[in-house]
Amino acid sequence: SSWPYGVIFYDLDPHLTPHMLHAINHVIKYLNSLDTCVQWLQRNPYSFDDNVQSWVSFVHYKDSPNASVCSSLLNRINGQQFIKIGTYCAAKRLPAPLDLENTLLHEMGHAMGLLHEHQRPDRDCYVYIDPFLLNSKRKNFRRIAGKRFPSGFPYDVNSIMHYVPSNLRLFHYHADSIRKLGRGDATFSVLDIHKLNHLYCGRRSYCEEHNSCDGFYNFALQQPLCFHQSPTYSQRPEGPKPDFTEDVSLYEEM
Predict the structure, then answer these.
(1) For 111-120, what is each residue's pLDDT tens digit?
(2) Rounded (5°) CA angle 230-144-158
(3) CATH 3.40.390.10 in the chain, residue ranges
């Protein structure tokens, strides 16, 4: 379920590193500056408050070099829930500016109720995902039934909730195979913000505001390949076979 009144309480694990704390504070300051009904408010973890029945705890998670972890539960559960920041997940993001902030914003998007854009039921209209990724038990590439997605929004290749491919031969946009997917600047796309306002502020969906998409994913129904992996969409593009020894641990994250 969503967070009542759009207020998300959080607390901080005392074992978080300075780098992790800096990234968390950066993202929360950004989120609270947006024109939405959602606010992240810090609670005191050492005092009991009857009014705070659900909250997010940012915790330093002990992951491993071969299985780095940054993850979050989807939406609100009753009681305490966690956004896990793994030691190696954070460490491998140190060299790139805003990389950890970008990952945290993605995970906090999950906590606010946003799903992966590339798991939409109509995603095959827009992106190619190699069978290697689909068949490798990577659950975060599987399409999710349409009823779990809010209707009325176009596919957003710029969403913070869209994975950023590490190999464009395995995962790319149909219309432009070298176009960047997702984000790297630790900000929401225009449609990400619109979705939050739709979930929490009573704003109408994109399609309602633009008098289109009358039915569920009506904009996609014009394309016959949208709801299944046809041969055209499931075959690897021409060219050298991808090297599957690359690090694809990124795809294991929530």
Answers:
(1) 999 999 998 8
(2) 85
(3) 4-112, 117-226
Residue at token pair 């994975």 = 163
> Looking at the DSSP assignment, which residues form a beta bridge with residue 42?
10
Characterize the bridge pairing of strands 79-86 and 70-72: antiparallel
107 is catalytic: yes
Which CATH number does the domain 4-112 belong to among 3.40.630.180, 3.40.50.300, 3.40.390.10, 3.30.1360.40?
A: 3.40.390.10
Flag whether the pTM goes above 0.85: no
Catalytic choice (101, 107, 238, 246): 107
Q: Taking the CA atoms of the chain, what radius of gyration do you get in angstroms?
A: 19
Q: How far is CA 42 from CA 11, 32, 39, 73, 157, in A?
A: 6, 12, 10, 19, 32
Q: Which CATH number applies to 117-226?
A: 3.40.390.10
In the annotated binding site for Zn(2+), the residues are 106, 110, 116
> Across the chain, what does the average pLDDT equal?
81
